[in-house]
Amino acid sequence: MIDNLQNKETIDQAKRKFIKDYHSTSRHLHSEIAKLNSLMTGGYGTSSQRIKLDAVLSYELADAIRDHTEEGTTAIKRAYQAGINKQNQTWVDTQRAGQHVGVHLSMSEIISALAAGGATEESIADKYVRHFEDKICTLPKTNEAFKETRSTFKKRARGKVEQDYELAVKFGIS
């Protein structure tokens, strides 16, 4: 993995941004749940209306799942993209340093000298860029899996609400 201090800082920044977004979404969710709970415990409406409030609560939870997933994958993608940029910049900086040290050498001689010391574009940038790009490519699949989970959750919630209505009608409490 990458030991580069710059990449660690970039990843730390992405984590901080994700945590901030996560807490914002969590605060919103807790606020909505508190509102719903106050309606439900405050003797609000009929059983039918309480069933609707349960449905709203389940949809709020499904939306929170979606929001947390999007925030997380966005933060991860941002961190990987920043890693790609930093690795590419490291290679450019390495070449510049080689030019300063070997002012009398041509660029191809500088590249050869760097390669002799193990500093190639492949070892400094390309292999890390490929690694990050591979990781970025997995994010859409992860998002899709969470979308399917959210969809399943909503379908089950909808089914549960329908069942609650049927039972409420059956027992005459609607």
Helix/strand layout:
Layout: H1 5-41, H2 47-101, H3 107-116, H4 121-170
Helix pairs in contact: 1-2, 2-3, 2-4
Overall description:
With 174 residues, this protein is mainly alpha-helical. The protein contains 4 helices and no strands. The longest helix has 55 residues, at 47-101. It is rod-shaped and about 95 Å long. The model has no long low-confidence stretch (mean pLDDT 81).
What is the radius of gyration? 27 Å
Characterize the biggest β-sheet: none
Overall shape: it is rod-shaped
Number of strands: 0
Percent of residues in beta strands? under 5%
**Residue windows where pLDDT falls under 50 for at least 5 positions:** none
pLDDT averaged over residues = 81
Put simply, the count of helices is: 4
List the helices and strands in order.
HHHH
Helix content: over 70%
What is the terminal-to-terminal distance?
60 Å
Q: Please identify the structural class as seen in this structure.
A: mainly alpha
